[in-house]
Structures are given as structure tokens and as C-alpha cells.
Design a protein that fits this description.
Helix content is about 80%, strand content about 0%. By secondary structure, it is an all-alpha fold. It has one domain. The longest helix is centred in the N-terminal third of the chain and has 43 residues. The radius of gyration is 19 Å and the shape is elongated. The mean pLDDT is about 90.
């Protein structure tokens, strides 16, 4: 009887672990892909990035700086190993996204239905979810 309970507990723990890993990779790949595409768009100055940065009052070279860091950060999130680097990437993404939301708010650029503020905050929340779900091998 005790052996059956132990086997059930082990099976349940395996399913929970698998579910957490699926959730982690789903959230992390979504985050990494959005950060990567955003970084590429900023490097290539696509999708209104040039107008957006100038309307917020930032110099154009900020696009190159943010774009490079976003591309490198997205790569660092999915590459195995380097747990300390990943911690820095998570912190950087959080600062960039919350900074974007605050920049839009200070510039009174809310977008339709507050989209310009809500979207970066959504990415910041996605970043926190990826950080919270990370496996033990990615924790310092």
C-alpha cells in the first residue's frame, strides 16, 4: 500500500515538473521571440521605431543601443548555461519594459486604449513569469 502511494506521488511530481517546464519554455520562447523581433526592428529602424523614439524625445542612436542589447539578451535567454548572465538579462528586460511604459506615460503617448503603456507592462509581466518558472539549473 505504501509503495503504491509513493509511486503515485512520484508520478504526480513528474507531471508537475513537466508542466512547469512546458510553462517555462512557452513563456520564455514567447518573451525571447518578442524581444528579438523588437531588437531587430529597432536595429533596422522598422515599424515606426524612428518616429516613436523621436516623439518620445530620445536621440536616434538609442535604437541601435537598445536593439543590440535586446538581440543579445534574447539569445542569452535561450542558450543553455550562464545563470548569472540570465539574471542580468531578466533585470535588463524588466528595466527596458518598465522604462518604456514610463516614457510613454511622461510623454502623454498612451496610444489607443493605453496600448503604448499596457504592452510594455505585459512584456515585463511575461519576463517576471519566465524568471519565476525557471528550472533549478538556471537559478544562481
Amino acid at each position: 500500500m505504501a509503495m503504491m502511494i509513493g509511486a503515485e506521488a512520484t508520478a504526480k511530481a513528474g507531471i508537475q515538473f513537466r508542466g512547469k517546464m512546458i510553462a517555462y519554455w512557452s513563456v520564455t520562447l514567447l518573451l525571447a521571440s518578442t524581444v528579438m523581433l523588437s531588437g531587430i526592428g529597432q536595429l533596422m529602424k522598422f515599424g515606426g521605431n524612428l518616429e516613436l523614439v523621436t516623439s518620445l524625445g530620445y536621440p536616434i542612436y538609442v535604437l541601435t543601443i537598445l536593439g543590440m542589447w535586446k538581440v543579445l539578451g534574447a539569445i542569452a535567454l535561450v542558450v543553455p548555461g550562464f545563470p548569472r548572465l540570465k539574471e542580468w538579462v531578466y533585470a535588463g528586460i524588466f528595466f527596458v519594459m518598465t522604462g518604456a511604459a514610463v516614457s510613454h506615460a511622461f510623454a502623454s503617448d498612451y496610444g489607443p486604449y493605453g496600448f503604448s503603456i499596457i504592452l510594455p507592462l505585459f512584456y515585463a509581466a511575461l519576463n517576471i513569469a519566465s524568471w519565476a518558472l525557471r528550472p533549478k539549473s538556471r537559478i544562481l
